[in-house]
């Protein structure tokens, strides 16, 4: 049984990472070379020459074409080989796979599975990341752990209290019960924790200027497999959205994670923090960037340890789950179902 | 076939290593967290939370309880979970294994197998290490080799001549024949080498002040699997114990090794040197500590190399054994028998 | 199916590498210890003591004998054990394998397979390396890649244009078609590329002093599995060998590679460059040594990458081959046939 669904969109990179330099990244175990054409279109090709498998990412761009760094086999943006050394005839089968890519919401999304099924309308949205009404900081940390451990981690924020104390964790996160909703049809999982009267962690007090206790909402919206949204709302105790749905007296932070398996045991951990306040304040941007990166690295450290534990474990180890795990267990079920669906199609 | 016997006592640590900080050590492949209660009792628990397997050693002590560093699952000294996040009810099955531990002769001994069979009376003794009539230096070196290679090494001291020349090895060690006795019932192996007229190696001449040639006795007493005792007696040539058994004119050094498998391919190599002379002489202590550690590290270097050789070897490689290996072969037989006994009990 | 033929001669070392110090090198997966006797004869023995497998290379020479560094088992130049500790009788079976070795053309050749089949007449020759009519520079670079990748690399020099541009590569190498001849009986492969009017790369312009365009011949002669010869001829455009076969107006460089598998996934990459001009010019020697080493390291970097690609690849990956690969494909066929022949003899 494979451990990831291939017929899904995954974030391959931030748009800013892809340019006129050849850029190598492995997605779902597939080595891929990315670049932009002279007109700026992103291209994704399998990262190995058809001839002797040399990585194309170790090669050179000639206009919009890649010239293999080993023997000079030359490819256009569709992966078709257009020149070979020592002869004029190019074999008709000389072609490397190309992958559908879409640039949206600051991300470059890639489709690894059957290209005929790559429906771009199905890419979930994170519009804040490319919205001038928000200020965004973002990054990516490599994780030496299977992506399922990151999904577990993000679906159960009670860990903030223990792993991220002093940053985003306070006692109320762990002690406040959650509500979980599962949309079986659209395959989205919602986990909410509304704290009415909570301590304000440094991450929010320093960025918003709020003093004293707060009402703090965490509304998770997970679109398996790749996109995780945390709608975070912070306001003074008692301040609620208005009846018309507007919410001018609260601070809103959209925390976005893209969870992309690199291999079965490693993950690209993309993170972004978009806020609707202090838009021009570079100090706040810098504070949130540094603090969120620290928080992500706390997770990375813990999950890298956990990967070693899980990898060394005999099969059939039985975990114990409680209420806080409802969302995480639903996520595991969805991910399993997506993989099984693909297996059935194949069979 | 497993490679170690589980229903046996093993040295987990020196007593001085275990305190109010959580202390992780793997014994027979089992990750274990150790600590002392507020009243000083040593505790050993399985080093992974029942919830998501996070290592408890990466957590915090709250009084005598461990609070998991990931989601706050809280355990008492018996391994029973007494608190979980987000709910009041603690699942009845929430408990991590605890291991019997006994502190004796400066060591903390642990029992990994069936707790019902943990008979503390069966722990072999090394009383000198906690006896005010002796001065002791000790340490532990990690060995990247299977424990059987260390057993082989210690059972055949002819290697002192070649591997430890200039420290404890002289030509007489390799050239003097040994006598071996095997107590099948109590499962103890005795190997003796009595040199009547031997060169005095630096290790003993500098610590005792003896000049000239010596009578040197090496009486090994191995209690498989873990405890190895070398009763070392040094005296001027011709000086023997008296008829009444007393031996006031000789120097006695009790060399103790505890051989504890960490994994199938690594070992905790505990070593201690207890002497009945120059008890208050810090210079002698420092000399013996540094010299014995050097000797142990010479073994570690050789055995780490040997592990790679053995690990790369095809199965069925046939070694050649001679007289000096009698004790080592008996040790292998006992170790094999202990494991087989456990397999039979299981079946 | 094994990946290398054992009943073949392989280069183990340069003669200069073997002396009165014990020298360890693994050939075809076999750890071997090399040394010279007091009269200068090279000796090759299996690098593990019959007793407990300690590497003899971690031991000491006593005259022409090796004394094991662990317990003192002592071996003569035939591998026969002549002394053991603690007893006078040496077991009759105590012996380590010895390997036939021949010193020729500056190399020490070794035979790993059945000694009865070690016909020294079959060692291919590279006479320039020990000929006073030539000046030679040479070295060995360890390659973390299977030897087949190095064979591929050397059989298809069109890669010079892309991987070694600025050193030995020019556009003409990749664009000039090759001719390939395969001697099925003697098992030699010839690949020739004669460029009539080519750019002179730095490697040749700086060493010969030639200015302007050149006629450049590359005549490969591969004696599988180990010896690869590149007869390189450089002359001003239009200058050809005379009718009598003499060629006084050209520069000749004999490039020699010995390709020796260390393990299934690593290779000893011996390289030598012999020239028939500027014999006494140390500056030219130094230039060619540094430049050829740089070129070899460019290959090492590329092939180390390629090894990782190939090792991670699922079986059955289909490469695409074109005309330039004719010689390389013939080489693969010969290597496979040599291995199959051995399998048949065994069966």
Automatic annotation (TrEMBL), chains A, B, C:
GO molecular function per UniProt: 2 iron, 2 sulfur cluster binding; metal ion binding; methyltransferase activity; monooxygenase activity; oxidoreductase activity, acting on paired donors, with incorporation or reduction of molecular oxygen
Superkingdom as given in the UniProt entry: Bacteria
Family matches, as PROSITE patterns: RIESKE
Domain Rieske stretches: 9-110
GO biological process assignments: methylation
Keyword Transferase belongs to the record: yes
SUPFAM superfamilies for the chain: Bet v1-like (SSF55961), ISP domain (SSF50022)
Pfam family, one: VanA_C
UniProt entry keywords in alphabetical sequence: 2Fe-2S, Iron, Iron-sulfur, Metal-binding, Methyltransferase, Monooxygenase, Oxidoreductase, Transferase
PANTHER family: 3-KETOSTEROID-9-ALPHA-MONOOXYGENASE, OXYGENASE COMPONENT (PTHR21266:SF60), IRON-SULFUR DOMAIN CONTAINING PROTEIN (PTHR21266)
Name of the protein this chain belongs to: Vanillate O-demethylase monooxygenase subunit
């Amino acid at each position: 049984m494979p451990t990831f669904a291939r017929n899904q969109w995954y974030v391959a990179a931030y748009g800013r990472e892809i340019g006129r330099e050849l850029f190598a990244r492995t997605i779902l175990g597939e080595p891929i070379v990315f670049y932009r054409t002279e007109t700026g279109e992103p291209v994704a090709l399998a990262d190995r020459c058809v001839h002797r498998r040399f990585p194309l990412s170790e090669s050179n761009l000639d206009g919009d074409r890649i010239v293999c760094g080993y023997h000079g086999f030359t490819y256009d943006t569709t992966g078709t080989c257009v020149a070979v050394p020592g002869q004029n005839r190019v074999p008709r089968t000389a072609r490397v796979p190309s992958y559908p890519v879409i640039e949206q919401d600051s991300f470059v999304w890639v489709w690894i599975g059957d290209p005929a099924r790559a429906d771009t309308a199905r890419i979930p949205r994170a519009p804040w990341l490319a919205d001038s009404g928000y200020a965004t900081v973002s990054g990516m940390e490599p994780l030496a752990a299977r992506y399922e451990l990151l999904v577990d981690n993000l679906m159960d924020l009670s860990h903030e209290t223990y792993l991220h104390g002093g940053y985003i964790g306070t006692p109320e996160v762990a002690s406040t019960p959650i509500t979980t909703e599962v949309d079986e049809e659209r395959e989205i999982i919602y986990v909410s924790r509304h704290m009415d009267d909570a301590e304000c962690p440094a991450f929010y007090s320093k960025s918003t200027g709020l003093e004293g206790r707060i009402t703090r909402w965490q509304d998770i919206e997970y679109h398996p497999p790749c996109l995780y949204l945390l709608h975070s709302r912070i306001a003074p105790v008692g301040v609620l959205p208005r009846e018309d749905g507007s919410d001018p007296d609260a601070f809103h932070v959209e925390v976005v994670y893209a969870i992309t398996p690199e291999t079965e045991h490693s993950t690209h951990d993309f993170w972004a923090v978009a806020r609707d306040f202090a838009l021009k304040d570079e100090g706040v941007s810098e504070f949130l960037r540094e603090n969120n990166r620290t928080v992500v690295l706390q997770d990375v450290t813990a999950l890298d340890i956990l990967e070693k534990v899980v990898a060394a474990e005999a099969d059939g180890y039985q975990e114990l789950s409680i209420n806080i795990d409802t969302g995480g267990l639903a996520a595991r079920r969805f991910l399993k179902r997506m993989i099984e669906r693909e297996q059935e199609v194949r069979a």
